[in-house]
Design a protein that fits this description.
Layout lengths: L6 H10 L3 H11 L2 H11 L3 H14 L5 H12 L4 H14 L6 H22 L1 H24 L1 H12 L3 H7 L5 H6 L3 E3 L3 E5 L6 H9 L5 H7 L15 E5 L4
Antiparallel strand pairs: 1-2, 2-3
Helix pairs in contact: 3-4, 3-5, 4-5, 5-6, 6-7, 7-8, 12-13
């Protein structure tokens, strides 16, 4: 029997809250057979089947909002299509304008928009050329400023040298390397936990494991951005830092 994918709904409610009317409407939509089927497919990481189920639910009842939220999450994290993700976030807000989770959704839309912009820059030769020219102009301007104000530049350099080396070293050693290497699968400190990725893990599953809130996957991604290029950049055995958060 498939396990129904309930944690995402619980997570978003816990993060942002929801009014009684909106909550009762969302609960009714959660009981829709196609929505339940789509969330079960999400729990199995069967993203194509989940998309099909949610789209069928919307074809039967176009005024439902919940499928749009799940589709936005899938397109943002797993079947990367940032334009689709923004569309479904927008549709959810249109259908649930009074939901208190609107702020959370706006934050996610901003992240998706930034990712889309980065993708366009990386894949467009013309945009790359414009960015390179802009960077060259900025470097030229900075060089001219240094030539016109050599004394100021000298004072700036002196100030940088006064920073004690021990302060910089302390700031970069929040998580000792040896502690990361020798830590068990779930080791805990006052500020973070260490987790080793196992087969079948996704950021949403890991967020639900530690925070009981799959929507907080982005906290884990931000904490590990030095070793992860995106939400799907997970490898079995990889060590992740799980930041502590206030519940």
């Amino acid at each position: 029997m498939r396990t129904i994918y309930i944690p995402l709904f619980v997570a978003i409610l816990a993060l942002t809250g929801c009014g009684k009317d909106s909550q009762s409407m969302e609960e009714r939509e959660e009981r829709d057979p196609l929505v339940k089927s789509g969330q079960a497919y999400m729990a199995e990481a069967n993203w194509n089947a989940a998309i099909d189920a949610f789209k069928q639910a919307l074809e039967q009842e176009p005024r439902m909002a919940r499928p749009h939220l799940d589709l936005a999450l899938i397109y943002q994290q797993h079947k990367i299509n940032y334009i689709h993700a923004i569309y479904h976030y927008d549709r959810y807000v249109e259908l649930r304008p009074d939901a208190e989770k609107t702020k959370f959704i706006e934050e996610q839309k901003l992240k998706v928009a930034q990712a889309l912009a980065n993708t366009l820059i990386n894949n467009s030769p013309e945009v790359k050329r414009v960015v390179q020219e802009r960077n060259q102009l900025l470097q030229q301007n900075a060089s001219l400023k240094q030539q016109l104000s050599p004394s100021k530049a000298g004072r700036t350099t002196t100030n940088v040298k006064t920073v004690p080396a021990v302060t910089q070293k302390t700031a970069t050693q929040t998580i000792p390397k040896t502690a990361t290497q020798n830590a068990p699968r779930n080791s805990t400190t006052a500020k973070h936990q260490i987790y080793h990725v196992v087969s079948g893990d996704t950021l949403t599953k890991i967020a639900n494991k530690f925070y009981n809130d799959s929507a907080r996957w982005d906290i884990i991604l931000d904490a590990n951005k030095d070793t992860m290029g995106g939400p799907r950049d997970l490898k079995v055995g990889q060590t992740l830092v799980i930041p502590a958060i206030s519940q």
